[in-house]
Amino acid sequence: MKQKLLWPALLLTVLSLTGCERDRPTATAQIKPHLVEVVRAEVKDISVTRERNGSLRAIQEIQIFNQEEGQVSELPFFEGDRVEKGQIIARLDDRLLRSQLTRAQALTRKSATDLAQIKDLVARKLTTQNELTRIETELAVAEAEQEALQTRLSYFVIRSPISGVVTHRNTEPGNIAERYSHLMTIADQQTLITEVQLSELLLNNLQVGDEVSIQIDALRAGKSEHQTLPGRISRIYPDINPLTRTGTLEIALTPVPPGARAGQFVRVTLTSQQAERLLVPFIALRRSVEEEYVFTVGANNQVQMTPVTTGLEIGDQIEILDGLEGGELVVIRGFTNLRDNKEVKIVNAPSATEPLPLTDIENTP
């Protein structure tokens, strides 16, 4: 009988304890802070170095064409031969044209004799003024034809317009050269040039006459040391490609080193003048469909999404043209679930960040 009364009492005790546990207040859950790492955006007075590839070509290359049709009678120079300005480099057979010139000269002499006689007759009023005019016209036509034939004859002797080296010889003596046939090519290789493309953001920091470094792979083949050659900017083209936003630089290699030839592959290293640039790490840059932006941390430890306009990539840094003024704390790590106006906790000391590099070398194909 006592055991039957004990079980209900035990059950009431357990239920009472359970109710007490439920009535106890729970501990408030702590919200973990959003951790970020930052760097300070700094303005640096730096120069930017870029390496660009190109091919050498002669500063002047002339293709020689004939203006008159004829058989090639002389072509004394071959590829690699040097010619001087004004030197005869080709002759065409001009015998037919010379016979036409002889006839024109004879007609000129006859017209001159006739004119002298008719003037005497006009003075004595033995002929009309119209006859004098006719003879004068015949003489003028004969002289003009003679002059035209002499000019055409000069085209049968072809002289070099420049001093240079024959790079192409496209025909042989005995061949018939139709009018405007390409006979040969002469190049002035005293100075070799190359053209490279460069971002519009760097063009304004370069000037004609600036020195550059040039490396020619063919000259350093088999050598342990890289041979650097001096060059200079000889021309900056005024137009910018609207698609690539790049401009063209002409680089002159002078003096030409032994072994350098037109067509060789070259590497050009350009260094811009020093300029103040605001740089942040590239990993800080965020992109959306409409804009580029970075997250900056304010005095209240809240982040702001700050739109920026970017410029040059310099190593692992990116230039900021607009949006930042310098000195801002920019988030570089901790972007997961990061949003505008969110409170964060900085886990690194901005003053302890590594300094930004002062130069950059970029290799592009």
UniProtKB/TrEMBL annotation:
Annotated CzcB-like barrel-sandwich hybrid domain residues: 63-188
Organism of origin: Methylophaga muralis
Assigned protein family: Belongs to the membrane fusion protein (MFP) (TC 8.A.1) family.
Residue ranges annotated for the CusB-like beta-barrel domain, each copy included: 195-273
Positions in coiled-coil regions: 125-152
Superkingdom of this protein's organism: Bacteria
Signal sequence, start to end: none
Name listed for the protein in its UniProt record: Efflux pump periplasmic linker BepF
Pfam family, one: Beta-barrel_RND_2
Keywords attached to this entry: Coiled coil
Molecular functions (GO terms): efflux transmembrane transporter activity
Keyword Transmembrane listed: no
Any single Gene Ontology cellular-component annotation: efflux pump complex
Domain Multidrug resistance protein MdtA-like C-terminal permuted SH3 span(s) in chain numbering: 278-334
Gene name of the encoded protein: bepF_1
Cross-referenced InterPro entries: Beta-barrel_RND_2 (IPR058792), BSH_CzcB-like (IPR058647), MdtA-like_C (IPR058627), RND_pump_MFP (IPR006143)
Keyword S-adenosyl-L-methionine: no
